[in-house]
Amino acid sequence: MLNFTRTAPMGWNSWDCWGAAVTEDTVKKNADFIAQNLKQYGWEYVVVDIQWYEPTAENHEYHPFAELSMDGHSRLIPAENRFPSSADGKGFTALADYIHSLGLKFGIHIMRGIPRQAVHRNTTIADSDKTARMIAKTDSICKWNTDMYGVDTTKDGAKAYYDSIFKLYAEWGVDFIKCDDIARELPECEEELKMISEAVNNCGREMVLSLSPGPAPLEKAEFFKQVSNMWRITDDFWDKWELLYGMFERAEKWSVHTGAGHWPDADMLPVGAILQDYGPDGKTKFTEEEQKTMITLWSIFRSPLFIGGDLTKCDDITLKLLTNSKILAMHRNSRDSHQVWRREINGVEHILWKANNIDGGIYVAIFNVGEADSKIEINLRDLEIPAGQSCTELWSGLKAPINEKISVRLAPHGAKVFKLINN
Amino acid sequence: MLNFTRTAPMGWNSWDCWGAAVTEDTVKKNADFIAQNLKQYGWEYVVVDIQWYEPTAENHEYHPFAELSMDGHSRLIPAENRFPSSADGKGFTALADYIHSLGLKFGIHIMRGIPRQAVHRNTTIADSDKTARMIAKTDSICKWNTDMYGVDTTKDGAKAYYDSIFKLYAEWGVDFIKCDDIARELPECEEELKMISEAVNNCGREMVLSLSPGPAPLEKAEFFKQVSNMWRITDDFWDKWELLYGMFERAEKWSVHTGAGHWPDADMLPVGAILQDYGPDGKTKFTEEEQKTMITLWSIFRSPLFIGGDLTKCDDITLKLLTNSKILAMHRNSRDSHQVWRREINGVEHILWKANNIDGGIYVAIFNVGEADSKIEINLRDLEIPAGQSCTELWSGLKAPINEKISVRLAPHGAKVFKLINN
Amino acid sequence: MLNFTRTAPMGWNSWDCWGAAVTEDTVKKNADFIAQNLKQYGWEYVVVDIQWYEPTAENHEYHPFAELSMDGHSRLIPAENRFPSSADGKGFTALADYIHSLGLKFGIHIMRGIPRQAVHRNTTIADSDKTARMIAKTDSICKWNTDMYGVDTTKDGAKAYYDSIFKLYAEWGVDFIKCDDIARELPECEEELKMISEAVNNCGREMVLSLSPGPAPLEKAEFFKQVSNMWRITDDFWDKWELLYGMFERAEKWSVHTGAGHWPDADMLPVGAILQDYGPDGKTKFTEEEQKTMITLWSIFRSPLFIGGDLTKCDDITLKLLTNSKILAMHRNSRDSHQVWRREINGVEHILWKANNIDGGIYVAIFNVGEADSKIEINLRDLEIPAGQSCTELWSGLKAPINEKISVRLAPHGAKVFKLINN
Amino acid sequence: MLNFTRTAPMGWNSWDCWGAAVTEDTVKKNADFIAQNLKQYGWEYVVVDIQWYEPTAENHEYHPFAELSMDGHSRLIPAENRFPSSADGKGFTALADYIHSLGLKFGIHIMRGIPRQAVHRNTTIADSDKTARMIAKTDSICKWNTDMYGVDTTKDGAKAYYDSIFKLYAEWGVDFIKCDDIARELPECEEELKMISEAVNNCGREMVLSLSPGPAPLEKAEFFKQVSNMWRITDDFWDKWELLYGMFERAEKWSVHTGAGHWPDADMLPVGAILQDYGPDGKTKFTEEEQKTMITLWSIFRSPLFIGGDLTKCDDITLKLLTNSKILAMHRNSRDSHQVWRREINGVEHILWKANNIDGGIYVAIFNVGEADSKIEINLRDLEIPAGQSCTELWSGLKAPINEKISVRLAPHGAKVFKLINN
Q1: A319/chain B closest Cα distance in angstroms
Q2: Which of A311, B124, B420, D397 is the most exposed place for a label (fewest CB within 10 A)?
Q3: B143 interface with C at CB cutoff 8 Å
Q4: What is the model's pTM?
């Protein structure tokens, strides 16, 4: 895979709040906010999620077998009623230009495969004498959406089709592809994923290739590293403690596979104003402590960071959580991150992670994942950290007094993270 | 299930020789042969197998996403180029009439579900205000054929659709339905199967409901007995010894579930002139010994018996195998059939089955499933058969001398079957 | 296996009431009762269960690593304090003689293997220059009793040991061996079981070989039939409805393997005065209905029948249950027994079994295994039973009026069983 | 666990060469060699492996049920014929003193449990009124050795027994316990392991607790870290490429669990003069390349390092492999070791590991685990290593020229390992 994502991508994605129904106007407003408030902290990608080609999409539910906006060559195009600038076959060009003009990057979601309606109408494939019906994989469908058939990579025309869509996206100015119905479908979709990866590499424009949905199979880690830039390690993540609790184990297992250009992805951050239970707008159900825990874990693990909330309603607390420079420096510059232990201390389960900064500093994150307040001591010698360190807690910015031990008080579901520097 | 199949159905099916491409003319010629030569032995059903609605079908391969013949209400109808008498919307009426005029019964194959082309065109459902798109089950497809989507039984219109197709078949005069893509798809398709079963029961005409493909899951035996008349216990059966050898274990496991109205089905008999390896016409690859073994097992197990060969090319040997009155009496009148043992004797594997005739006679079938000639002795006392019996071997018609033991010589892959009668 | 058990063995066993601690006096008293009251109905074997060689045994609990009574050749012998007639090395000779004098047969329980104390003391093996230590299988122990090590059949001396113990038992006059820690230990113990089976066959006296504990693995059915006369299909069976309910499925699966000389064994009947929960003496917790259900199932399935109760306290109801001639004729003379169906009828689960009598009669047993009274109709045609039968219910002795159907009322956990005879 | 093993233990073990039969003289000679040649490089522990209490032990095979040397309190003691200094109940005191006098540490192997002979003789437990029979776990034996029964930790006397043996070992001067039949026996032996761990902690002398055999279950990693200092992640390791090849995957999975005081153990190094195939003495079958690969992997993974060879026959090449200061510094001072990738390059499988030195240096180890020579380039940026490094290959000592890439030539089964230091 082209390997230009030297740090884990950061940005915003429309799914959590608008499901299949986001509009051009909403995307632009969120992009405006990012440009004004978040860009300087590294937040960069603005991603339009699923079914931008479905004119009647209303929310997170899909309309089975809906008519989709499609060009004459079996390629889906933006629904004009939702993305007015796409009129006259211009696709996402104008929206991408707008995003780029803000100094940001533009991403879109796609489903693996070729539209079923193209297959049943037997429409043509660009720059090819083959048709959609000839390349569809007959037994390959998405289990939760009826838009596409899989593509049979052994068929003539398959490569032409995939090349043709990424060429179109390159023309539009797309910088990021979130390809869905693929990451957890290995090994069945392995050949199709390879073909997609090569088409992205060859399309003439640098694009991040992000894979969904999770959980991706761990035993395919090396393969994911070679064909993509990021891949989901979890099913959709929402603002529920059980899901956050479960992410610790996923992160532990995937941590050795994180590095330049290849990022196991813990999914969007449901922070700020987000849809709850697919219901009316509201605030994240995570407490502030839980949000710190989440951001700490995502950052020390170096997951991609994508905001799921509606930024036009972003409050000060949320903004502060997303713009902690020290935390984001850990996300950017840490190395060799891994869980050190997970154990009950005085009846409360705790988890400890460690990472190194390229500046020689050492990060120690400690999580209380139990249901009671706790006070614990961390023995630096047990962590193989040399004595004689200064120590700052990153969320509070406070210097911690240390000798050989750090004393930490934690609320339930809470986290603290220290940076230790040699004097 | 309506329970009128007091003995296991017997007949002929077009699949083995013509795949998806049988024509009206061929069906009639085979029916003629049955009426003249086989009817008096109990052979009765003439079944048109898969894709009679596909105008371009050529052989055993399916054309992905082919255009299908369909009426205005999402119902498939015979391809007029292959079944000329179906012109002008008459469906199979004329062909069924012809078969009935020969004193035979008429059957057709269907795929579970509703045509994908109906769903994508969103055509109507007869006697309903719903459309095809509303009742398709979005994640339910056949793994090996692209004609249909499954039907979501929780949706309004689902029952109306299934009622409408069986009403049409009843109008045509159909006596036998072989419903495919369903028997081994339990438990996923359990509700859909129940809906089909009820629709058959309520269509106003007695129809045998036969389920494919196998292997049906054994743990659902009781369910199959209640919703169908026969169901496949094996994947497609062809003229290969390994498949015949494997059928012994399947028959052993299913034997207790055989009885009036519910028949585990060991699939068609590839006898006489049949397609080999999907290639040019030829003879079955089974030896005569193997064919006797097959017919003996199918008959003592009381599987449905359907001929797979082209009867217009039926030779004398084949005809003789299919018209042994004693064997067919066992098929019709035996009860309590079961395997008694399976063991190596002098290094050769043998299998012994036992059944009772309602006339008080006892059947003992002995199979040499090894690769060497054998001579074995069967001790009647070990089989709990009282002394003082007369004994006839059914294939040869010879009386066997017995005291307490029957001596049997068997060729490899060979079988003998005895009827013992109290003096 | 020597094949003289033409009907499934019947008798009494000491385990349910006395655990590891039965005494000679108790055995004789129970034998006396059998001779006087049960012998004429076919009850025949009197079996001394586990640890007759353990002087300190008190109840159903074993004493780990207890000192065992053993002869000079590594063979266990009766504990003299519990079996006084065994003094002076006479073993079970006198007790066997006594049982024989009553016209009954004598059985003992053994554990697979060689005593651990023999191995650690390295004592000799009779008629061999090998010692116990040389033949013990180093990794083979019973999981629930510390008496023995398994025997390594690949070692010289192994056959000599097993021959020597059965030779001793033959000298004592033993007619029945219940060999424990073996039936569910296949395939690990397969070779040891073969060696035991051959030693029994060659010991010079006819002995039934019965295997424990269950559940024996179904896939080894054919093997069990060849090396033993009966084998347990269940773990220890007690007077609890859940266990009785569970036996229906076990019996269904094993029914095809029942026949002359080889009997899947549903374990002792906890009837009459039995130990409850290993506590003080008392009555069976089964209701009379449940006991009829149990005896009906055991009898139509043709399980061996062994009484677990203390016969010296046998009451009239129990005696009547054990001496129903019609039921016991079904146990003795039925053939081809199998479950026909198992289904809910009006919300109550029912099970139906069918079998044939060698006199031409047909048995139909119907069980209500639910929790409500029920009234159901049995359609004879569905059971493939010819019309024109007379019909007697075996427990009540009442003639049932039939046309094409039998009407049956059943209490929860209740059973009725009919014999139908052609007029 | 007492946590004094700040670096992974290093030493020598008698098993590979002498199996169950090592003698005092041999141990002393090997210790002498270590003191003279290896001590200054960190090699420290001298470990007497299994069955030092078995007077008749001859080689790697165990004598089933052999008589063991035991004191009056159910505790095994050295076989006097093999360890003459243990005469008069002195145990290992004199041998430990000798080892200590060389500046080295002394270790012994034990089997989990209590001697079977103690149980069958029912001998006493020191400082307790209980006996061996009372604490043996009745269903707990080692699958490959007959010396012991497991101890039932729920029984009174169990703790007293374990305390008594470690108290004895402390008196002898033991510094290291290799406890066998336990690491892969979790979860069954979890309670017994806890009891052993506590007894070691409370015995009054610092002892490393090492667990065997492997593979230890990965899901118990956190538990092992808390109750022991090292535990085997593999079954016995010998000089076969397949085993070395397989260790890469084991090391990858366990790497995050390595740290101060808790060391996943890849087993002894079969280097120099070792027994091959349990046959006559000879040289390791590993090539020099393979030995470097092995030592590189063990060292960057920070496995404990124990020499399996007969040091009295140590040749120069072997000595050089064991005394490379740079490699041993990596073993001692690296942190955060983990596999970075494993992939085919030009058809040859390669594996890359990375670790950090506490001095700020970065280790990169690259292995050719295929069957052909290879030449590859390592892009430092892909490894997230900053530019501007100097680079030394540790086995050759050569400086490597680097810009952004390191070029490496590797023989099949070969390894190179670089230390990169910021200029």
Answers
A1: 41
A2: D397
A3: no
A4: 0.91
